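Work Package 4 report. The design task specified in the project plan requires that, given a folded chain encoded as structure tokens, an amino acid be chosen for each position. We show below one input record used in the internal validation round.
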């Protein structure tokens, strides 16, 4: 069953997504990002602006199979299975179709009230489907 995490209270969703993807890639992960096309275009531009030592290899999901197989991060408006990609990141407002093809799904939620309301609706949908969800509040600092 897919492990689903909600990362709440991202003050800047785009910047947080860049950090999350950079961290995942640095740990050897390949990730599939789903969002609305406008947000994906902004994310694509932002990922090119990451420093040279932290370059995040990425492509848009309509590329050919060779490019998809070589990219650490795939950006698309709809999830689909890609060999070797086990983690999906949802930056969009709706529950993504076919999320259950992935081992892990991360839902990134900003501190915007409408984004939070959409996330609450997705939370209820996942719960109704029988998933146990993990909640990570980005405003809470871990205690040492």
């Amino acid at each position: 069953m897919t492990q689903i995490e909600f990362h709440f209270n991202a003050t800047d969703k785009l910047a947080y997504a860049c950090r999350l993807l950079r961290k995942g890639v640095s740990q050897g992960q390949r990730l599939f990002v789903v969002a609305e096309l406008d947000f994906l275009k902004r994310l694509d531009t932002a990922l090119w602006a990451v420093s040279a030592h932290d370059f995040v290899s990425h492509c848009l999901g309509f590329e050919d199979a060779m490019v998809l197989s070589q990219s650490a991060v795939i950006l698309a408006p709809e999830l689909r299975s890609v060999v070797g990609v086990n983690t999906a990141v949802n930056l969009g407002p709706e529950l993504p179709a076919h999320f259950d093809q992935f081992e892990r799904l991360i839902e990134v939620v900003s501190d915007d009230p409408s984004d939070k309301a959409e996330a609450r609706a997705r939370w209820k949908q996942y719960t109704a489907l029988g998933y146990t969800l993990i909640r990570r509040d980005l405003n809470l600092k871990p205690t040492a």
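Helices lie at 13-26, 37-48, 65-70, 113-128. Validation will be extended to a larger panel in the next phase.
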